[in-house]
Amino acid sequence: MVARGSRLNSELDDNIAAYKHYLQAERGMAVNTVLAYGRDLQRFARWVADGGLADFYKPTIRELMCYLAFLREEELDPATVARHLVALKMFYRYLKLEERAEQAAVELLSSPTLWERIPQVLSPENVEKLLAAPEPGERFYLRDRALLETLYATGSRASEVVGLKLIDLHLQSAFCKCLGKGNKQRVIPLGKPAIAALKEYLTEQRPRLVRANPEAPWVFVSRGGRVLTREMLWILVKKYVRRAGLNAKVSPHTLRHSFATHLLAGGADLRTVQELLGHANIRTTQHYTHVDRARLKEIHRKFHPRG
């Protein structure tokens, strides 16, 4: 039994190596992307080697749920867990293509049960607490308030917000342009609170911050007119999360999750939310549709004659 397990572990390593070669040589994927998938699959391989799977060619839904639990125990954030599952799903598609694994394995990885991982979402009330966390009188109050408002108003990724330039802002017309993945640009409306916060920051504080670098193109800058980095944004959000008394796991991406969920809960259609988030595939956006299931159940219970 031990020998069989050792043989399967060796075969899994060989298959992962062949898969990485396939991604680069036949699919033409970037080296960094291939490396990222490889790292995710190596974590899977270590879990299998530690007894997580009896036979990686034929996983059961129970075993895959155990792998999901293992990823959570590793304290990975929801987006990273999702990426691991995507890498695994693509790997099993490759194994099926090579006729090394059964169709059932791929189908198991498409199971809604496996993907019941509600992304952490703030309630509208907690969003308000976070947006109100910067306090008047603080050195960067105007910038930080505008920064948080923009994150939630646009649902943009952290990299998109720190990369936002003055020429991307059209406050009179109430929208901004975001440059997303694959250099795809999209237009996102801005609400009145975000516009008001941005106007005050751009008028009252930003001119002082860019004195040493008046040609700085970015909207959000640090002292000296330097661009804010993603790490600096993360630190700022964490600072205000603590001050607002929210879950320590809340991050800039939590505001993106909240943006999408609140739109859907308010009645926005899936295609619109897909466009606003900049998702290439609507299936990515569909992950948010189950988040508000509790609200739908409550409405059904309250209004249906036999609820």
Explain what this protein looks like in three dimensions:
There is one protein chain. By secondary structure, the protein is mainly alpha-helical. The protein folds into two domains: 2-109, Orthogonal Bundle (DNA polymerase, domain 1), CATH 1.10.150; 124-294, Intergrase catalytic core (hpI Integrase, Chain A, Orthogonal Bundle). It has helices at residues 2-25, 31-52, 61-73, 78-97, 103-109, 124-131, 141-154, 158-162, 192-204, 206-209, 230-244, 252-265, 270-277, 282-286, 293-303; strands at 169-170, 175-179, 185-189. It has a three-stranded antiparallel beta sheet, with no helix packed on it. A hairpin with a 4-residue loop joins β1 (169-170) and β2. α1 packs antiparallel against α2 (31-52). The protein is elongated, with a radius of gyration of 23 Å.
Provide key terms for this protein.
307 residues, mainly alpha, single chain, 4% strand, elongated, hpI Integrase, Chain A, 3-stranded antiparallel beta sheet, DNA polymerase, domain 1
